[in-house]
Amino acid sequence: MMKAVLFDLDGTLIDTAADFIRIIQQMCKEEQREVVDADAIRMQVSEGARAMVKLVYPELAVDDATFLAHRQRFLDIYAENIVIDTDLFEGMYPLLAQLEQRGIPWGIVTNKPRSLTESLLQKLQLERRCSVLVCPEDVVRTKPDPEPMFLAAQQLEIDPQQIIYVGDHPRDIDAGRHAQMYTILAAYGYLPLEHRHDLKAWQADCIIDSVPQLQQILEQKLQQ
Fold it and tell me: By the 8 A CB rule, do 14 and 124 touch?
């Protein structure tokens, strides 16, 4: 019987893309560069700040001092304006409420830095509702390694095999599978371009295309 649900953050639980698109396109305009297409930015959200900034400065090496300065500026702008157009995916608020009403703990395992994650959750008034939060600073090896998953299970005091993990990136599914969790691929999320054409290859236990569909699957699994 499944006893808890864990989510990846960006692209799974929370729709943060609009704020990243706004910032990246703002940087393009300030630098008088060609404005990067919104869809291209969206597909890089799950790859992190480095990948998104690389869209603006493709000619710079990621370890170049100039590139690192641009990346830091991106992070500073984001931290100061972390929730402008960001919100939970449609349907996620009632889904979380239903889990809470049933006494099913839910939590987050993310590769997003803790300072940004906590700020985001506070702005959305989710920090006290979230039963467990695991960020990169909490582990030695981040996703796709299962270490963060095992830590979340330990803090919940629930066997990993009794936990559902929902994510929108191959590393999410790999981490969940290697921890022997039930994995759900959120195909409504920020699927990376190189992996979006063969979702079955991710080897998730289930693929869903919307939050209502996710809700149906959770209802089935949590009743078993």
Answer: yes
**Given this model, what pLDDT does residue 175 score?**
98
User: Which tokens belong to 11?
Assistant: 């692209």
Assign domain 4-15+87-221 to its CATH architecture.
3-Layer(aba) Sandwich (3.40)
Catalytic residue chosen out of the listed positions 8, 15, 19, 172: 8
Question: How far apart are alpha carbons 14 and 195 in whole angstroms?
Answer: 21
Active site residue 172: no
The yes-or-no answer on residue 8 being catalytic is yes
Nearest to 209 by CA among 162, 165, 161, 166: 166
3-class SS of residue 16: coil
pLDDT one-digit tens code per residue, 158-205? 999 999 999 999 999 999 999 999 999 999 999 988 888 899 999 999
The ranges assigned to domains in the chain are 4-15+87-221, 17-80
Q: Which of 10, 15, 19, 174 is catalytic?
A: 10
Q: Which stretches in the chain have pLDDT values below 70? A: 224
What is the structure's pLDDT at 224? 57
